[in-house]
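ok so for the tutorial part 2 we go from a plain amino acid sequence to predicted structure tokens. step 1 is just haveing the sequence, like this:
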Amino acid sequence: MTFPHMFNEKHGGVPRHLVFHKPYGVLSKFTDSEGRPTLAGYVDVPHVYPAGRLDMDSEGLLLLTADGDLASRLTSPSFKVPKTYLVQIERIPDDAALVRLRHGVMVKGKRTRPARVELLLEEPTVHPRPVPIRFRKSVPTVWLRIEVHEGMNRQIRRMTAQVGHPTLRVIRVAIGSIQLATLAPGEWRVLRLDELQGLLKPT
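step 2 — the prediction. this is what the tokens look like for a chain of 203 residues:
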């Protein structure tokens, strides 16, 4: 499958693919009839749209593109483009819970595909959230790194809830070869050509 014009980072002087760090509390779209915060408050580049989405209360990497074929590739489970998240959950999961997450759990009547799940021994360095997570002295929290190849609605939160560990915070840190890295909430940059080529490699 070919993707015409996708190897041009810019078209007519306008960036065609952007890497954006979506902040907490911002919708993954440019307009909202209810007046809630949207991408329009952060990105002033015309003709780019989100390839997939993050929930309003999730944060992290969002790819904006002017190419519909690329957006379809990134969002279709058939292309198996991995999405990686840092996930803060309540309580420390045992091995059985981690195995269930890795093998797939039932979410709204459908079993999730196998996932890579790692229990982080140290808390990752992340940007502070404008609305702090709820803190309960009697309930410890821990971070997971979860890699999935799907994009079901609120999938990460539903997965951890199924194994008894409610999610407190979700930060997407990678889509395929694209890394969030040091990009701060609300900031964006132009996708590099090598990153674009990495997305197009056969899986």
